[in-house]
C-alpha cells in the first residue's frame, strides 16, 4: 500500500532535507501561533509545538482506502545561557544574539511528532545537538544579519545556508540543526511498524533510480 508523508511546515530547509533523503513530501502549513505556547524547558516547548503543528494539519487530512498517510510536525528552539531562543523578533535582536553567542555553545532542540492519519497512532521525540559558534567579529555579524537569513530561523543561524560558515562544529546529528532529524524519523517510523525505505520515491535526487528492497 502506498505510503504518503505530509510535512506540517513552511520550512523549505525541512522539505529539501527530506527530498535529499529520497522522500518527496506533501506540504501543508499548520498555521499554529507559536507565541501562544510557553514552557520553561526547551525540550518540552519544541515537542509541544511539533505536536500542535501535526495535529492542526491532521484535522485537514483524509486518507483513501488504497493509501496510508502520515503527518509530521517539527519545531526547533535553541537553549542558550539559560534562555530558550526561537526566531529573532527583528534584525537588532538577531545582532544582539550573535554578539552573545559568538565563541560559545548552545543546544539546538528539535521536536518531532509523527501521526498516522487513519488510526491516529503516533510517535514523538526530541533530538538535541550541541552547536559551537565561531568567534566572529562585529562586521561579520552585521553582514550576516543583513542577508535576512537569521531572522527566519530558530536561534538566528543555519547550518545548511550562509550561517554554516560561522559554526565551528556540532556534537550530534546535523539534520537536527536543519530542523528534522533523519535518524530520529527512521526510529519514529519503526515505532509505528514502518520503514523509511517505504517513503523513498521511485527517482531520487540526481535522477538515479531507487530500487525497492526485496
Highlighted features:
nucleoside triphosphate diphosphatase activity; 6 helices; Maf protein; 214 residues; EC 3.6.1.9; elongated; hydrolase; 7-stranded mixed beta sheet; ITPase-like_fam; alpha/beta; 29% helix; Nucleoside triphosphate pyrophosphatase
Polypeptide structure, described:
The protein is elongated. The chain has helices spanning 12-20, 42-58, 91-101, 138-146, 174-178, 182-191, and strands at 3-7, 26-27, 68-80, 83-85, 105-116, 122-133, 167-171. α3 (91-101) runs antiparallel to α4. The chain is of the alpha/beta class and 214 residues long. The two termini are 15 Å apart. 29% of the residues lie in helices and 24% in strands. Its EC number is 3.6.1.9. It catalyses: a 2'-deoxyribonucleoside 5'-triphosphate + H2O = a 2'-deoxyribonucleoside 5'-phosphate + diphosphate + H(+); a ribonucleoside 5'-triphosphate + H2O = a ribonucleoside 5'-phosphate + diphosphate + H(+). Nucleoside triphosphate pyrophosphatase. May have a dual role in cell division arrest and in preventing the incorporation of modified nucleotides into cellular nucleic acids. Its main location: cytoplasm.
Amino acid at each position: 500500500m502506498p505510503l504518503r508523508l505530509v510535512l506540517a511546515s513552511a520550512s523549505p530547509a525541512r522539505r529539501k532535507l527530506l527530498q535529499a533523503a529520497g522522500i518527496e513530501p506533501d506540504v501543508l502549513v499548520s498555521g499554529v501561533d507559536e507565541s501562544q505556547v510557553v514552557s520553561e524547558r526547551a525540550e518540552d516547548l519544541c515537542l509541544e509545538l511539533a505536536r500542535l503543528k501535526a495535529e492542526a494539519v491532521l484535522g485537514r487530512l483524509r486518507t483513501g482506502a488504497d493509501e496510508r498517510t502520515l503527518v509530521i510536525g517539527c519545531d526547533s528552539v535553541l537553549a542558550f545561557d539559560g534562555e530558550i531562543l526561537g526566531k529573532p523578533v527583528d534584525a537588532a535582536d538577531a545582532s544582539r544574539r550573535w554578539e552573545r553567542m559568538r565563541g560559545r555553545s548552545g543546544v539546538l532542540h528539535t521536536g518531532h511528532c509523527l501521526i498516522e492519519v487513519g488510526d491516529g497512532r503516533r510517535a514523538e521525540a526530541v533530538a538535541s545537538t550541541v552547536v559551537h559558534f565561531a568567534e566572529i567579529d562585529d562586521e561579520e555579524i552585521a553582514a550576516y544579519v543583513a542577508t535576512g537569513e537569521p531572522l527566519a530561523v530558530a536561534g538566528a543561524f543555519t547550518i545548511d545556508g550562509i550561517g554554516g560558515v560561522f559554526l565551528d562544529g556540532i556534537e550530534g546529528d546535523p539534520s537536527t540543526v536543519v530542523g528534522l532529524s533523519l535518524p530520529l524519523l527512521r526510529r519514529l517510523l519503526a515505532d509505528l511498524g514502518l520503514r523509511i525505505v517505504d517513503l523513498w520515491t521511485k527517482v531520487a535526487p540526481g535522477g538515479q533510480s531507487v530500487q525497492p528492497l526485496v
